[in-house]
């Protein structure tokens, strides 16, 4: 991906950490296709690129994907009807087509918040105050629920540990020492079953290396900023 061309076209400046990731080929997941898991994944898992084992996220390494997504959001006929005062620059998506984006209209002192933009809801959500904290959050949340269909699980729990620690090794340069320490401690745990109660009051059983409640506590301590988890209607002016 040519970040300089994107910066010039959209009058932005990507965070330095994102530039470092691009320069170190950490945004490259290889060529996608029906044989990706068989041919490409076995090589990538030894030195995982950015969030290879994140939760339902696909990092973009194609300038055209970024440009197409921005053009769609800026189109007056786009179904999302995003207010023009927002400046979203997507860098990833999930399987449902929801976007992860830099929100440059909130940039402050070189820090660019990361926002989640759903495809079927007019409410976006601020996930982190900067890209480093977004990476940490993703690595943490990816192990709240683990089953045999998880990509990093493969054959057994031994594979799980190997894949997680391989990923932590390649991601450590982009995290704080404290964030690395927290992840290292959690990744050493055995998978356990727990009950999670959602805000509506209903509960469900799941299993992982960390509970949702513990993740929330860690995030509030480690990546807190005044707008963390704030939801907002992106069809309305941010000044309202």
Can you summarize this structure?
The chain is α+β, with helices and mostly antiparallel strands and 240 residues long. Helices cover 35% and strands 16% of the residues.
Overview of this structure, please?
Strands 1-2-3-4-5-8 form a 6-stranded antiparallel sheet. The protein has one domain (3-233). A hairpin with a 5-residue loop joins strand 2 and strand 3 (99-103). It has 8 helices and 8 strands, in the order αααβαββββαααββαβ. With 240 residues, it is an alpha+beta fold.
CA distance, first residue to last residue = 36 Å
In the predicted model, the low-confidence regions spanning at least 5 consecutive residues are none
Number of helices: 8
By DSSP, the count of extended strands is 8
Measured as a percent range, the helix fraction is 25-40%
Q: Overall mean pLDDT score?
A: 92
Rg result: 18 Å
Strand content: 15-25%
